[in-house]
Amino acid sequence: MKILISADMEGATGVTWPADVLPGTAQWERCRAMFTSDVNAAVLGLYDGGADRVLVNEAHWTMRNLLLERLDARAEMLTGRHKSLSMVEGVQHGDVDGVAFVGYHTGAGAEGVLAHTYLANSITGVWLNGLRASEGLLNAHVVAEYGVPVILVTGDDLTCADAAAYAPDARTVAVKDHVSRYAAVCRTPARTAADIRAAAAEAVPLAVRYEPVRGGPFAVEVEFDAEHLSMAATVVPGVERCAERRIAYTSGTMYEGIRTFKAVTTVVSAAVEEQYG
Ligand SMILES: [Zn+2]
């Protein structure tokens, strides 16, 4: 049985503000150890529960945050950028039985520690078929197209609540309780590692592949914090402006939907000016 861990950093133990997740800062150096602790706890729990292969896909920013040398020797890790399925790369080869979202967070415009959807501040909201969407929700639709269930979600308490919308059967672990976008009541790495390990072991029986879901078409809307960004995004084929600060597109599959979303975020990032946004 093979499990894929999609590992994001904003929802990791102890992480509460931008410097904690910004590669190169002293705070990031400190927090990447706690992030690694969360991921390794999930690895250990998955093996405890009967998994025999675990692949960790780095899913935060440069996708070079985890300390490989501190992971259990049985695990493998996919490090670095430019992957066709981005945060859930690795699910498409037909050999993954379950996916764990470790260190996840709530979506842009929602309450939650470091809430955002891909871009930290330029995107103020994402809607999928009219419902506000988090990265967890979008990625859950992608993995469903390969018939793979989401079995475990970790992050702040609001991320665990968000998971009920896309993976109601998944085990969840809140490593911290939301106070504001940049504040949380945090539990120690020793405590959260024990909680994550136990939940991961319990989650393994949920890793039962099913018939791939064809859930499309997916109508996606993205709202930006500045008007010119919606204009910039229209260079991506199929993307249209639907309001001053909003774009819309429709994809037949979430595979295409997430790829178009990545193209939009790449173009929009390049269109942000330092002072004016
Ligand atoms: Zn993220």
TrEMBL record:
Signal peptide range: none
Q: What class of enzyme is it?
A: hydrolase
On the tree of life, the source organism's domain of life is Bacteria
**InterPro entries found in the cross-reference section:** DppA_N, Peptidase_M55, Peptidase_M55_sf
Name of the protein in question: D-aminopeptidase
Q: Which gene codes for it?
A: dppA1
Whose protein is this, by species? Answer: Streptomyces lavendulae subsp. lavendulae
**Lineage, highest ranks first:** Bacteria, Bacillati, Actinomycetota, Actinomycetes, Kitasatosporales
Q: Does the keyword Hydrolase apply?
A: yes
Record has Hydrolase as a keyword: yes
